[in-house]
Model the fold of this input.
Amino acid sequence: MSEILRKLLDNGILQLGIWETVYMTFISAFFSYLVGLPLGVLICVTAKDGIRPIPWLNRILDVLVNIFRSIPFIILMVAVLPAAKLIVGTSLGNRAMIVTLVLAAIPYVARMAESSIKEVDKGVIEAAQSMGANEFSIITKVLIPEAKPALLVGAVISLVTILGYSAMAGTIGGGGLGMIAITYGYQRFNNEIVWICVALTIIIVQLIQEIGMHIARRTDKRTA
Amino acid sequence: MIELKNICKEFKTQKGSFTALRDVSLDINDGEIFGIIGLSGAGKSTLVRCINYLEKPTSGQVIIDGRELGALNKKELLKLRQNIGMIFQGFNLLEQRTVLKNICFPLEISGRSKADAQKRARELLELVGLSDKENAYPSQLSGGQKQRVAIARAMAPEPKYLLCDEATSALDPDTTRSILELMREINRKLGVTIVVITHEMKVIDTICDRVAVMDNSIVTEVGEVASVFAEPKSEIAKKLILPELKTVENITGGERIRLIYNGESSFTPLLSNIILSCGVPLNILHAETKDIYGKAYGEIILQLPEDSRSAARVKNYLNANNITYSVLEGGGKNVGNTSQAVG
Ligand SMILES: Nc1ncnc2c1ncn2[C@@H]1O[C@H](COP(=O)(O)OP(=O)(O)OP(=O)(O)O)[C@@H](O)[C@H]1O
Ligand SMILES: [Mg+2]
Done:
């Protein structure tokens, strides 16, 4: 065990890094779903085969999501730092990073939600319409509950993606395993630290995957 | 009462517009089971979807109990739909909800309390004979059971009308029969007016009072099932009602005639009487009895002798005895299922 590693463990820096990675990921995912899920639903609903077609709105949202999705995270991250400053008062630290992560993840989550909800059987929606359900009831009682297993699978993928983003955020002032790998590993030519961070990241990703997929499977009543 | 007045429906597609309904007018009376039959693509689903305005007609009026649907605002339309249940070929149950919750769905959206909804849902489960399945999920049910749940769900808000779009087309014959029986029971016991869409004559025979025959976006004939069955007038009706003729198309020989019987008489004395009194041999190409809305009907297709004198003698006998028959054209190879009804 190298000198640096022992120091990192003794000072609790590595433990803190793990915690920061996990909590940034989940908090960011939570806030990106708060906006991304309704956005995805809105795109579905306003599409031309949706339950309330509004072509112009659909077009605008679609283009916006596409634009944001096509900017590489590392560039977007730097670009939205001023926005972070505006929202949380600083462009440094974990809070600022969460803002960047959320802004970067929203379009991703929106697409994920859109594709899950699109899979809901048109016949079931039609049945609900034939019973006199309004759009709001269809969204809350048909689209989202019926798409729930797919949405959960999407959430697992989003979490893993956001976790990847959070590591990159370590390069511009965020905490977490990405920051540790860069500051203590890469910049000090200590490969051991880099590999430890890699291993820890893999373990966290695996845990999210396994637990998340298990929940998604359990939720799905089609295979009950 | 459901009144359809000059309904037209055009679909705009990339390749231009397609007319799925052309000037369709129909009246569906309260308390009856009304069938709409036609081949695939005839426009049946489009027509039935116009009845509850899932599809808005391009022109024409849909009037339900005196209210024109086109004149209603959205809220009124949604309210009115609660009075028109609908079931589908694909069942369209909510896969993530239990049977009981599926049946509660239409009650939930109309704002009934949960306890109230569940009480009503259990009554319906009893009606459709699935009380032991209330906690099952649709994926755990057979097709027939799924359709029973769909019927229970459609009936939950106590609708006056029930629309059935190919509700039995995905089911085997036994299950089809049991679902049709259930539909008839709902019609008789609860007085629900039922509109049945199908491409199978058997479904029409079994439960419908009246039938409309559709072909190529238009209604070609409407009438009591028994009379349409006895004397189909349009090409398409003949094709749907006389499908068996395909199998005898290749038989050459004399003219073929179709006799229809109702339950009051029987074939045997008739056939022997014809043969004895006319002194001619007859070929039986096809014989069948059908249950049309609870009444037995017999259908028989005979081939007359090739020499025209013998054939004329048989026809005279039938005419003299007031027996309805129709001549199937082209005794031999050149069969178009055209027939002329002779009374
Ligand atoms: N939304 C639509 N856009 C374009 N064309 C349509 C649309 N819906 C139906 N059609 C066309 O209208 C015609 C009638 O369709 P419809 O579904 O009413 O037929 P159907 O009699 O119910 O047939 P099936 O027995 O196959 O269900 C078909 O040619 C179909 O392609
Ligand atoms: Mg159809």
